Predict the 3D structure of the following.
Amino acid sequence: MAKGGALNLSAGAASVTVALILVALKLWALGMTSSLSVAASLADSALDLMMSLGGLAAIIYAARPADEDHAFGHTSAEDLAALGQSVVILVSAAVIGWTAVERLTSGAPTTLASQGAGMTVMAVSIFLTFALVLWQRRVARVTGNRVVAADSLHYLSDLIPNVGAIAALWMSRRFGIGAIDSIVALGAAAILLAGSMRIGRGAWDALMDRRADPDVIKGIARIAGDFPGVHGFHDLKTRMAGSVVFVNIHIELDGDQTLREAHAIGAALRRKIIATYPQADVIVHKDIAGER
């Protein structure tokens, strides 16, 4: 396995390991405290575990080379996994939000227990999550893998409900304010809802062959427009599939040069685009300038 693939795999494995540890710790903390904010954080970690497992499977499957049945590779598996995960996250957010509203409107006092133990578990969760995010960001910076980068961003957002759970437990122990637990849970549900919509929209766009980010398209156009030997270009088309950006571009070359010279220009342009955007899969078509 190439170095980049090994790094991506290590990030995926680390994500699954941390998620397993957090789920176990928060299950224990929920049993000790009966805190809804801890329950919200537990649900978030359980979803993280599902997403991490899906992400790891997608990294392994997407790394498979193209074959006769999948000429463009297997990277769409990442988008299929993400779309399914977004639906699960959406349902979980709705359940947590509904439970929080019921507690707030019931008028019954919310009693939390063993707040100290719960705060300790949440503090450990924050430390492990932060360490994971640092490693994932390093891997994403080296490999350019979008799945790892997205997973890192998702875990970074998890720090908010974890901090909120600690605040709820502390206020319950210090001031006896139990309602803050449900309020924090509502905030966590809102974060989950926003995250599910973002993940689902990105996966849907990729499955529907939406074009790449406009900044990426402009960057590729700038490279082609300024490249030596290229007199112009047209029909620049892109689409997303998982962490890969598929690029098709027609370049216009001097018709009097040799085939070898034309091939060298096209190959050099392809290498330049991939060097700038490592996640790109590029096909360069060569046309004679002025004969479109």
